[in-house]
Amino acid sequence: MADVAPEPARFAAALEERGRTASQVRLRRRFLRSAGISRGQRVLEVGSGSGVVARDLAAMVGARGHVVGVDASAALTAVARRLARRAGINGRLVLKVADGARLPFRDGRFDATVAVTVLLHVDGPDRMLAEMIRVTRAGGTVAAQDQDFGTLALTHPDRALTSRILDAASRQMCVEPLSGRRLRGLFSAAGLGRVRLRTDVYQDTTLEPYTRTFLERRAEQAVRLGVTGAAGAQRWLDGFTALGRTGAFVMTLNYYGVTGVKP
């Protein structure tokens, strides 16, 4: 889907907008630190998108480390390569087009393998996790972080419409909208050791640009799905703008990060 024009450029821009939002930066980097990413490591990111996380990883492993990012989208991978060159880190960051459920690497190649906001979009996340485990060395770390849209809280005067829009959009945009809460069980069932859960919260009370984009995408989906008309969707968005002007806007969303060690 990300390779169907004109979506790639818009989707990449949304990923980058989310990536530079301060609350997102904090929760993402806390998760990566909890995964034990350190200097000199060989790290794989599955579902690297526009390269936000891969660039963080490259900074964490340093000049002696090595990061590989893979994504099924050729368009997003091209964007990620361009941004890595612009950041001056393309020398220690390799970005490839590959299917996360069929990784083109030998067994045990990486010290750590991560997937950030990816498994909720995957049909059969156990297969992708099995591949992540396969390419991680014994004693290495496997880590995943996903949102859980069942934890999304939003202030809005029309609660019923808000629930209909969010539920319909989540089902359309994610294979498993409740993925976050299920990661720990997925990791345990895969046979990983020392499985640990970390919960972080994206919080916005100022209607950040990323939050606006998040809400606009859901309004668009609601119109496509027939949940409401274009005028109703705009009134819904205007409700958030009004709340923002009065200091009454609140959005929170839980992100669940799970780490495990390959036996």
Overall shape: it is globular
Ends apart, CA distance between termini: 36 Å
Strand content: 15-25%
Structural class of the helices, strands and pairings? alpha/beta
Number of domains: 1
Describe the structure.
By secondary structure, the chain is of the alpha/beta class. The protein has a single domain (7-261), classed as Rossmann fold. The protein is 45% helix and 23% strand. It contains 9 helices and 8 strands. The protein has helices at 7-20, 22-34, 52-61, 74-87, 125-134, 159-173, 179-189, 209-224, 230-245; strands spanning 42-46, 66-71, 93-97, 110-116, 136-147, 153-154, 193-204, 251-261. Strands 1, 2, 3, 4, 5, 6, 7 and 8 form an 8-stranded mixed sheet that branches. α4 (74-87) links the parallel β2 (66-71) and β3 (93-97). α6 packs across α8 (209-224). It starts with 6 loop residues before the first helix and ends with a strand. The mean pLDDT is 95.
